[in-house]
Amino acid sequence: MAAKAIFKKPQSLSKKEFTYCPGCHHGIVHRLIAEVIDEFGIQGKTLMVAPVGCSVFAYTFFDVDGTVAAHGRAPAVATGMKRAMPDRVVFTYQGDGDLAAIGTAEIIHAANRGEKITTIFINNAIYGMTGGQMAPTTLLGMKTTTSPYGREIEREGYPIHVSEVLKELSGVAYLERVAVSSPAEVRKAKQAIKKAFTAQLKGLGFSLVEVLSTCPTNWGLSPVESINWLNENMKKEYPLGVFVDKVGELK
Amino acid sequence: MAEKVMVKGNEAMGEAAIRAGCRLYFGYPITPQSELTEYMARRLPEVEGTFLQSESEVAAVNMIYGAASTGTRVMTSTSSPGFSLMQEGISYIAGAELPSVFINVVRGGPGLGDIQPAQSDYFQGTKGGGHGDYRLIVLAPKSVQEAVDLVQLAFDLADKYRNPVLVLADGMLGQMMEPVEFPEFRDLKTLPDHSSWAMQGCEGREPHKITSFDIDPVNLEKMNLGYQKKYREIEAKEVRYDTEMIEDAEYLLVGYGTMARILGTVVKLARKEGLKVGLFRPITLWPFPYRELESFAKGKKVLLTVEMSMGQMIEDVKLAVNGKIDVNFYGRTGGVVPTPEEVLRELKKIIERSE
Ligand SMILES: Cc1ncc(C[n+]2csc(CCOP(=O)(O)OP(=O)(O)O)c2C)c(N)n1
Ligand code: SF4
């Protein structure tokens, strides 16, 4: 009997094996981006910028032209690319340390300029790659290697709400916070990524999708416990939802 | 032949870049080079180019990285504190081997310093202000005309070697007006084709990956050895220098850029007094003309290096002569420009002492 493929690797993902820990959400999000690139048929004209962080290898996981930016600088690198080649699709993939700490200036100004790029922002409330230090997104009370007594307002300030900050900027065309902790959420996340790319393809401005993500390794939890922890804690601090939508209904 | 026009150094360098085929500029204002940024803002749209004022020099240099990775001619300009902020990006650009042009119109430092001309960024430009084993090609013009010529050369060298090139000028050169003759506009279709490596979309080919990164030390060493091979080739082929009245000289002055120009006057003044003084001027600060300087220094009674700094290039001068002759130094710092008379006085003192 001839086999019929009902599920296969997206064409825009390379053959390289992911380097992510079991239960990490980076991999799911990669797949969603690749599916969207395939569905839009833009693999041949997409340029990607990977960050510094666990997803530093992302430029090798996608079968598109790709590079790695210095820590936090991806939006500036993407700006240079897009200004040089306005008819290409340019996206950055960034963690919360990368985007919300060292790269705060770059993301705010790229967004405010309405730079026609798309950013996929992975918020796992911690620095993954360097071994679980505090991020600006770390929750209050959360223990990390550099907030060993738990994050305290007096000492470390409040968790930063990137989407809520960016939504005030007029250059933003699409902005949504999603999660990928359940099949239904995965479908919604994909739709958000699709809309973000649509915003760019239509030349409407800057688009960003914030994805609440797990880091089982540095949270010290199993993959399942991590999802529960994310659902119970992260979603309270970072409510899911659409913040800006200048795209409208997708066909 | 093209007509000569009076232009300010900063603006002349901008026009030279555009004529060299540069259609993209990212930068952040800083004195004494802001006219260059402003010139590009005005001029680039006229040639269907793109100007973008970045939020910082950190962003500017990373925009350069992005644009250069598509194989497009791109440049930025700045002055000392801005150049410091660009070091992170320059290290990445050198590692990723991306052609790009930087102009540093140096002012007095350290720190916020002042806005007067200086040469105290020599180390940063030639020895690498960013991390890692990398090199910039560094060109030092002494006149507005030469700045125009070297900006053109900078783009060609950047493309040829896939390496960042720095034009190291100073506030004097940026601010002064001189008659210059501009070269013809480069036909954009004749610019080097970078499609074999650049990020332009992978339609019909394997994806291109550009990075300065490899987690495996053995591979990273290989990458570094690759850069070094290129640097050796540049050292063999791209050394440039100039001399004045050097053949019969007994005393040798060494200086670059604006300082060398002042030293040209010193040579004339000294000759009038019967002192046989000559001048050696490196035009490429990296690769430095070690061998050439060594051969010209041979048999000289006195060698004097003069800089608008407390002595940075002097280390290369010493390397060149390798202890075979004493290297004397005179310099002013903080944005003070030495006068020819003052240098001549110093030279005479040194000659007296040595005889
Ligand atoms: C200039 C600079 N500072 C610090 C680092 C070290 N560093 C590498 S990854 C990282 C944090 C990454 O965290 P995040 O962006 O949240 O991504 P994750 O690893 O969690 O996916 C840091 C601080 C660096 N590479 N460069
Ligand atoms: S350390 Fe955390 S963020 Fe990094 S791959 Fe592992 S689980 Fe994912």
Write up what this structure looks like.
The complex is a heterodimer of chains A (251) and B (355). Chain A has a single domain, classed as Rossmann fold (3-Layer(aba) Sandwich), CATH 3.40.50. Chain A contains ten helices and nine strands. Chain A has helices at residues 26-40, 58-61, 74-84, 96-102, 104-113, 153-156, 162-166, 183-201, 216-219, 223-237, and strands at residues 46-50, 65-68, 89-95, 118-123, 126-127, 133-134, 172-179, 206-212, 241-245. The longest helix of chain A has 19 residues, at 183-201. Chain A is globular and about 50 Å long. Chain B has helices spanning 9-19, 34-43, 57-68, 80-96, 122-128, 144-161, 171-175, 217-237, 257-272, 290-297, 314-321, 340-354; strands spanning 4-8, 24-27, 50-53, 74-78, 100-106, 137-139, 164-170, 177-181, 209-210, 241-244, 251-254, 277-282, 284-286, 302-307, 327-331. In chain B, helix 9 (257-272) crosses helix 12. The chains are: A alpha/beta (251), B alpha/beta (355).
Which key phrases capture this entry?
heterodimer; A: about 250 residues; alpha/beta; Rossmann fold; seven-stranded mixed β-sheet; 10 helices; about 35% helix; about 20% strand; globular; B: about 350 residues; five-stranded mixed β-sheet; binds thiamine diphosphate; binds iron/sulfur cluster
Please report the number of helical segments of chain B: 12
Radius of gyration of chain B: 21 Å
Using the coordinates above, name the CATH class of chain A. Answer: Alpha Beta
Q: What sort of overall outline of chain B do the alpha carbons produce when their principal axes are compared?
A: globular
Strand content of chain B: 15-25%
Strand content of chain A: 15-25%
Number of domains of chain B: 2
Q: Give the class-level CATH name of the largest domain in chain B.
A: Alpha Beta
Radius of gyration of chain A: 17 Å
The residue-averaged pLDDT of chain A reads 97
Give the CATH architecture of the largest domain in chain B. 3-Layer(aba) Sandwich
| Major beta-sheet overview of chain A | 7 strands, mixed
String of helices and strands of chain B:
EHEHEHEHEHEHEHEEHEEHEEHEHEH
Q: Which superfamily, in CATH terms, is the homologous superfamily of the largest domain in chain B?
A: Thiamin diphosphate (ThDP)-binding fold, Pyr/PP domains
What is the SS-derived class of chain A?
alpha/beta
DSSP strand tally of chain B: 15
What is the architecture of chain A at the second tier of CATH?
Answer: 3-Layer(aba) Sandwich
Distance between the termini of chain A: 36 Å
Within the CATH hierarchy, at the fold level, what is the topology of chain A? Rossmann fold
